Amino acid sequence: MRQIHDKLRKCQPIVESIHKISGSPGLAIGVYQNGKIVHEDYYGLRDVERKLPVDRDTIFHVASLTKAITAAAVGILVDRGDLSWNTPVDQILPFFKENPSEKSKLIMPDFLSHRTGTTWGDALYLQSNNNLMLPKSESPRTFQYLPTVAAPRSGYLYNNHAYNIPGFVIEEVAKQSYGAFLQENIFDPLKMTRTFTKNPDDPNVALPYNILSDGTPFQIPFSEASSDTIMFSAVSVRTTMADILQLYGAMLERLGALVPGGTSNETKDAGVLSKWYRFVTGSGSSTTTTDASPTNPIKQAHQLFRPHSVRSSNTLYEQTSALGWNRTQLPGRLEFGWNSSNVAAMPLFGKGYPEKLALWHGGNMPGSTVAAILLPETQTAIVVMQNSLGLCDAADLTAQLLLDCLFLDQPQHDYVALAKEATKNGASRMEKVAEQLEQERESGTDHRPLEEYTGIYENAIKNWVIHIGLDESGELFLRFQGRLDEEYKLRHYNYDVFAWNLSYDETVKRAQYCRPHTFYRFYFESQNDRISFLRWHHDPNVAEGEVFTRRRE
Question: Each residue of 416-434: pLDDT tens digit?
């Protein structure tokens, strides 16, 4: 273990540089290998104002790392015989039976591996200050109405809304809440005593921050996501480094039994190769497995971790999605998302490693970013958590850096340069939005009298509204869902089009993501010379945008 510490300590100055460049107040690092935690490191502060440090018991919001836990919960129900992987959702949830559509025939792996073909739609659930814009009860109806932009099972299209549906399936089949099921069947068996599906009343919690352009942390509200809200089974889990490494240790144990030649203590015989064949093909029974470790709550590993959808066809090597995990054949690129949109190219990960496969996933919400990588053949897991979105994703770069140091004794890439590139481009995103809007604007056009645009505009299923009004100075404003804390000033752009983009610092102070420039334009459209519709391009997968219809007065 000392040898591992020594290897990773060599990279400590680089970790500190990345941490500083990102602006994130706190950073937690944990490495698990061969059945035990072999390295931990904690940097910075969980609470800037009170100068409280991060430690192994600090609770972080791990956001989309929830997804693998949801998949594991479904696996438990399948293993019990309470559910089949191939059961259509309309045979489980009354809503889909009573409202039949193509989506009613989707099965659990469709939702859990992002192959529903349903568009993104994130703006409809999350806006400023971590506000959730719809109640939990509206989740099935919202998923049903979101456009299908690709044939189901034709490929990978990430969708948070889709992940609500397995959560409802868990609650319907188990006859208990999502949070209670996880507690009883995963957290308690693994002694994850500081893991929650809501904001805990605990003094050792990492406060959420966004980072201003000058690197200053700005505290923002906690995410509202919980077992009782929309996105409950997509992003609700909060946990500590000590707890999450317990979970990933259990997953690695299951993965080890599926590696050809084996890494676990089982006999390495033809039975292992048979398991591997079932693993990569998905053949054989979906409900019966030989459980060599009955106390391990992770079940159905041959379904959880095998490829279910293709993420990318631009490489000869595998880039696929398992259930709650991404799979990358090594060497390959890990596109965690936050950095990949702000650098020219992500580094090639895993060249020269003893590993052939990485399972990985990130998570981010305003105020939190996490990265997790599992390497089954060497029984290794690394987790990095930060309590901010940061000017760059320090968690992603730090995880890749430390695995280089662990397996190759030195970094393969200039991770500090990547952090600087991502930070520079990230902090200029809203400037680029303003530039793109200006380039496309036709100057010298007039608008109608402003009161002609005012009213309430609603979506097709009438659960999402945009209020347009006039303030005391006679200027137009918008309010999402009519909320005062979701108000933005509208500026005339051209003709019947208005814009509402902010500066970078104004955007992050409101705990908003920086979106494409098309997101910040509203197109008002007329019928019989009366403004009757508002078109908003909030989803890059829907080129024509979404039309909101003005309510009749």
Answer: 999 999 999 999 999 999 9
